[in-house]
Amino acid sequence: MSRPDIPFPQSPVLPTMVEGTHVIQFSCHKGIGCWNACCSNIDISLTPYDVLRMKSRLGITSTEFLKNYTVPYEMDKDSIAGVKLRPVEEGTACRFMKPEGCGIYEDRPTACRYYPVALLSMRKQDEYVDRDSYAIVKEDHCKGHNEPRSITINDYRQEQGLPEYDELARGWRQLVLKKQSSGPSIGKPTLRSRQLFFMACYDIDRFREFVGAESFNKLFDLPQAEKEALLADDVALLQFAFRFLRQVLFGEESIALNSEAAQERLTKVQEKRLIEEREAAKRRAEEGEGDIAEDD
Ligand code: SF4
Ligand code: SF4
């Protein structure tokens, strides 16, 4: 099965987009002739909330989960990272596939829940709202399309528990879409920013250590009670991670810097501006000299 890389529209599946009110004919149930065919050949991108659910289900840290159950990939030309579910060694099947079905059914990823529907979140350049559309994926091996059940995509999403999954990954989708739709003014994120993106989105346990560290305290003025509440709750911490990344990647400051760090930052900005002005003046002077030499 090639599941589309939601939410990225450059998926190899070129879909017709439909709204949530669109009715599909589909049912998947034990006993169907193609049972588990879709889980035997996987290409599944994970959202940060998927990672959180699966690592909790397995009772391991996000760092262990990423190392043992995923492979990283580049989501765009600027090397923003995504993670995919890693199949069995030397095979293509999902490691959670059991003869009776999904071994982590209650915590299965977003893409597995959506199938055979794909969510396509889009955002036009300079627009602040993202729009959700859907596409239907029809693969020959999937017999679910022949089953006599009609259901709207909206109802199918409810049935599959998707509103919660989509809501808790929305901040991540918005970050990715904003990065992809932003013009050259945003530029390529630095290596440090890309590392922060990976940690904050997918490695929530390392992000927790990062937020709890003294160096974070020195930089950000986060009230102690708010910080303790975040550190005790994975889901709240993940939402804070998205907020933190908006600040890191796009300068949307919503987390106050402490006054010393703010002053340091202001000084750095002023120094940078001074250097740029000097360089521009030097360039102008050199161009002026060039013009005089040509006149000679
Ligand atoms: S996580 Fe579950 S539903 Fe998804 S591919 Fe693996 S076995 Fe199938
Ligand atoms: S009906 Fe489709 S989704 Fe269900 S088991 Fe068969 S191939 Fe997988």
Report what the structure shows.
With 296 residues, the protein is α+β, with helices and mostly antiparallel strands. Helix content is 47%, strand content 12%. It contains 11 helices and 10 strands. Strands 1-9-8 form a 3-stranded antiparallel beta sheet, with no helix packed on it. Strands 3-5-4 form a 3-stranded antiparallel beta sheet. The longest helix has 37 residues, at 259-295.
- What composes the largest sheet? 3 strands, antiparallel
Number of strands: 10
Helicity range: 40-55%
Gyration radius, in Å: 24 Å
β-strand amount? 5-15%
End-to-end separation: 71 Å
How are the strands of the largest sheet arranged? 1-9-8
Q: Which ions, cofactors or small ligands are bound in this entry?
A: iron/sulfur cluster
Query: How many helix segments?
Result: 11
The SSE order reads EEEHHEEEEHEEEHHHHHHHH
Low-confidence segments: 1-13
The whole-number mean of residue pLDDT values reads: 88
Shape: globular
> Which structural class do you get from the secondary structure elements?
alpha+beta
